[in-house]
Fold this protein.
Amino acid sequence: MPELGVNIDHIATVRQARKTFEPDPVWAAALAELGGADCITLHLREDRRHIQDRDLHILRQTVTCKLNLEMACASEVLTIACDVKPDQVTLVPERREEVTTEGGLDIAAQGHKAADIIRRLEDVGISVSLFLDPDPRQLEAAAALKVAAVELHTGQYAMASRGKAQDAELLKLQQAGKLIRQAGMTLHAGHGLTYHNVRRVAAIENMHELNIGHSIVARALMVGFEQAVREMKRLVGYGV
Ligand code: PXP
């Protein structure tokens, strides 16, 4: 059964809309754990639009499951990560003008820069995952860097209309998953996954971790955070 990583960024998005103290992502993380989360994921963005340094520091002390920090290949946040030591870092591309992470890292082009960052994270005991499109060229570059894991970007699958278009995107994810496994890396996936589209991705062979944020936070507004996580956890375990 894949593990469920619950991304709590958008709890902080609501807080930052008023620059106040509520809702607190630290509370949300505790409720996510009660709902069955296997991992708490957060993205410390350069522009600090949602998660703040304070959140990361407190969550490092309070989260009892895996703590996964998403971050760009940037020196400021690298220093913070090496100090706080989350269990896992997922390296993602970051652009200030984007609404959310729009595509995977271009690791085929940025291999040298990433290699140094990966080594520094691994030196302090942090496991590294790379957020990549299901593109064989990118996966080969990741394998050459010998990273522990690759998180496949599921955004194209999530945006495709149901039927042939979605089937084609799922096939790309399945084939990419096979390459990742053959290279000895662990398979993760995320982005745009919802209560309606998650099961086919959860059923991909050897899927180890799914990171899901927006859809869980949206449902939590209606049913509460713990319940929303519990419902997603059930779907992730159920498969197709
Ligand atoms: N995985 C990565 C690497 C991401 O950047 C994000 C978005 O922050 C997610 C998963 C979660 O995406 P969503 O909020 O669409 O579920």
Remarks:
- The CA atoms of residues 56 and 84 lie 8 Å apart.
- The chain has a mean pLDDT of 96.
- Strands lie at 3-7, 39-43, 66-71, 88-91, 127-132, 149-153, 186-190, 207-212.
- DSSP finds eleven helices and eight strands in the chain.
